[in-house]
């Protein structure tokens, strides 16, 4: 039997979001009591919730049109589903600290230590343990991130995507914008706000699945990312 590991954050009212993005608001829109015309119940149970949030909420993938103006026609609904259903590897970069850049030698060393290689079309997950160390704390926005050179190197390996635990793929004000541009230029993407990557370390290759919502002209989408190990 296959083992499925959930790599996705819970989405909830008031959860942490990137500072330039709108907050997450989830409210009861309709209740079972309303539907049944119950006026004397002390208990309210939601039948429909109303959600207000950006496409870049929780564990999500960026569409290529998010990266920069030249890629504005490559929205999430136009990206091939094969980009979100791939083989995956997870690299141990948990030695990286706050705002520290992940460089090409870091990736190469992590691959060597894990006895792994990158194959065309892979999704590369970068375990830094930042989620468990800092989620919803003052250090949450200050995690490590991939450097410009490392992003270009990953793109040159013809990966489908890479994934990070942090709210941005790079370190803000230290190349994060350029990392986005490189993804658009080289035609690969990235996932943000991933969890449970520590459960993948030392286990080799797995099936990675993270299908986005089919949002017309969308710049990204929340995903239910999972790693699947076949029994």
What does this molecule look like?
The chain has 231 residues and is α/β, with parallel strands linked by helices. It has a single domain, classed as Putative cyclase (Glucose Oxidase, domain 1, 3-Layer(bba) Sandwich). Helices cover 17% and strands 25% of the residues. The chain contains five helices and 13 strands. The strands form three sheets. It has a nine-stranded mixed beta sheet. The chain has a two-stranded antiparallel ribbon with strand order 2-3. Strand 9, helix 5 (176-186) and strand 10 (189-192) form a beta-alpha-beta unit. It starts with a strand and ends with a strand.
In sequence order, what are the helices and strands, one letter per element?
Answer: EEHEEEEHEHEHEHEEEE
Shape: globular
Evaluate the radius of gyration.
Answer: 19 Å
**Kindly state the mean pLDDT as a whole number?**
97
> Helical segment tally?
5
Measured as a percent range, the helix fraction is: 10-25%
What is this entry, summarized?
This protein is α/β, with parallel strands linked by helices and 231 residues long. Helix content is 17%, strand content 25%.
Set out the fold topology.
Layout (H helix, E strand, L loop, with lengths): L2 E4 L18 E7 H4 L10 E7 L7 E3 L22 E8 L8 E2 L1 H11 L8 E5 L2 H5 L10 E2 L1 H9 L4 E4 L11 H11 L2 E4 L13 E4 L10 E3 L3 E4 L2
